[in-house]
Amino acid sequence: MGKVGFGVAVGCAVVTCAIAAVLLGRRVQSRRKWRRAVEMLQEFEEGCATSIGRLRQVVDAMAVEMHAGLASDGGSKLRMLLTFVDNLPDGNEKGTYYALDLGGTNFRVLRVQLGGRGSMILSHQVKHHPIPQELMSGTSEDLFDFIARTLKQFVEQEDDGSEQKVDEKKELGFTFSFPVRQMSVSSGILVKWTKGFSVEDAVGKDVARCLEEAMTKAGLNMQVAALVDDIVGTLALCHYYDKDTVAAVVIGTGTNACYVERTDAIIKCQGLLTSSGGTVVNMEWGNFWSSHLPRTSYDIALDDESPNSNDQGFEKMISGMYLGDIARRVLYRMAQEADIFGDDAYNLSIQFIFRTPLMAAMHEDESPDLREVRRILTENLLLPHVSLKVRRLIVRVCDIVTRRAARLAAAGIVGILKKIGRDGSGGVASGRTKGTPRRTVVAIEGGLYAHYSMFREYLNEAVVEILGEEVAQNVVLRVSEDGSGIGAALLAAAYSSN
Ligand code: BGC
């Protein structure tokens, strides 16, 4: 080999070594990054742990906070609001009633025909309307005018004139799913907005009157017979069909629970008398807080950046508005610290881009190559080149977020059962006798439970885990649909002045 040949050979060897070194370096670096991603996943999982011990602490905290909220206003983050619903519909309601259901990005108008005993709900018509984004943070006048105009169109379409005399006032059940301090069953003052609404001049106003003024302006001869939270509508509808229903839970965009309480247990309203001896309490459990809740740095960041920070802590861990965004935050930090998405990760920095239904669809993707995960990453997050290994990691993140949420919701439900002495333990100062098994129905409404099967399975499993099989046999979690709307119409009928 001549000098030239030798030189070339050495050159080639050097280049080859250099390439090998670069490749090796890259591989080492990519292994290191992957290790970091896995480490972050483990940290997140540990931060979200919901051992049975921790769930029991949450159960106890819920029951204790319920007592505190019933003892005095401001005694707990659980507001425990009176609803003035003392009697739930029983099937005797008769006539045609309207309902208006405002509580998320859509609102619905309904017309319900009730046949009285035996014939139950004869028919109901529903129409959904999206709420224009600008109205969610505009003025209360604009919001209520818009709703009243839409309601009027609906009434004109549906009303065939056969049911009522022309000049008779129609009765409306108004579902307003935000914290309201009620003065009566048909009036109440908005305490604060949740779920992204911020029509600030409505806070402190009687929302039923705001609606009635707008209806008058729109030329509608209608009055609010019942102002209810969606959760109370859910309880009303489920109780209409099943008299063993004692509580209701909503887990949708937001979350809440209500239940039937003995009036003598409501210390903050001493002397409250009702014909039934009980009344429905709207817990506003989305605002529940306890140091036993497993909170991570991602939850803290989400809360800090929300328009209602330090509020709705439980809601931010378990409801549909937030779950996707918790997962997004974990993935975005993995993108930053472990570079799992290369240079494509910009979209993950956008708040709420990863909505909970997308998260659920990814989580429930059962295809071996996670095709649905790939589709959503490509179409919704503009991340077209994510490897299978990373797609699996994403599914794990979704699983951790959902499992924690479902198990905490389960603990909340058992907390209510404990408070009313239906958890098999005799109840915290509930004065009820130990050990008598009674069928107990809890109505559950909202997309997370009704349509996200992994969430539902985790929740059901946790209820049995906490209560034990024997007690859990007497507890029925009953899916309710349209309770927020139809239930409000039923309550309008039950409290109608006609
Ligand atoms: C509201 C509750 C409502 C729940 C479910 C929460 O954000 O505060 O009043 O029942 O969402 O819609």
From TrEMBL:
It catalyses: D-glucose + ATP = D-glucose 6-phosphate + ADP + H(+); D-fructose + ATP = D-fructose 6-phosphate + ADP + H(+); a D-hexose + ATP = a D-hexose 6-phosphate + ADP + H(+). One of its GO terms (cellular component) is cytosol. The keyword Lipoprotein does not apply. The keyword Membrane applies. PROSITE patterns: HEXOKINASE_1 (PS00378), HEXOKINASE_2 (PS51748). Gene3D superfamilies: 3.30.420.40, 3.40.367.20. It comes from the Eukaryota. Keywords: ATP-binding, Glycolysis, Kinase, Membrane, Nucleotide-binding, Transferase, Transmembrane, Transmembrane helix. One of its GO terms (biological process) is hexose metabolic process. Residues 247-493 form the Hexokinase C-terminal domain. Its EC number is 2.7.1.-. SUPFAM superfamilies: Actin-like ATPase domain. Residues 41-240 form the Hexokinase N-terminal domain. GO terms for molecular function: ATP binding; D-glucose binding; glucokinase activity. Belongs to the hexokinase family. This is Phosphotransferase. The gene is LOC105045358.
